[in-house]
Amino acid sequence: MKATIMYGAGDVRVENVPDARIQERTDALISITHACICGSDLWPYKKMEHDDAGRSMGHELIGVVEAVGADVRKVKRGDLVVAPFAFSDGTCVFCREGIHTSCVHGGFFGMNGIGGAQAEAVRVPQADGTLVVLPVGKDDKLMPSLLTLSDVMGTGHHAAVSAKAGPGKTVAVVGDGAVGLCGVIAARRLGAEQIIMMGRHPDRIALAKEFGATDIVSERAEEAVERVRELTHGLGVHSVLECVGLEESTLTALSVTRPGGSVGRVGVPQRGSIPEAQPSFYNNVTIAGGPAPVRAYIEEILPDVLEGTIEPGRVFDRVTKIDGVPDGYRAMNEREAIKVMIKF
Amino acid sequence: MKATIMYGAGDVRVENVPDARIQERTDALISITHACICGSDLWPYKKMEHDDAGRSMGHELIGVVEAVGADVRKVKRGDLVVAPFAFSDGTCVFCREGIHTSCVHGGFFGMNGIGGAQAEAVRVPQADGTLVVLPVGKDDKLMPSLLTLSDVMGTGHHAAVSAKAGPGKTVAVVGDGAVGLCGVIAARRLGAEQIIMMGRHPDRIALAKEFGATDIVSERAEEAVERVRELTHGLGVHSVLECVGLEESTLTALSVTRPGGSVGRVGVPQRGSIPEAQPSFYNNVTIAGGPAPVRAYIEEILPDVLEGTIEPGRVFDRVTKIDGVPDGYRAMNEREAIKVMIKF
Question: N or C: where does chain B have the smaller number of CB atoms within 10 Å of the terminal CB?
Answer without folding.
Answer: N
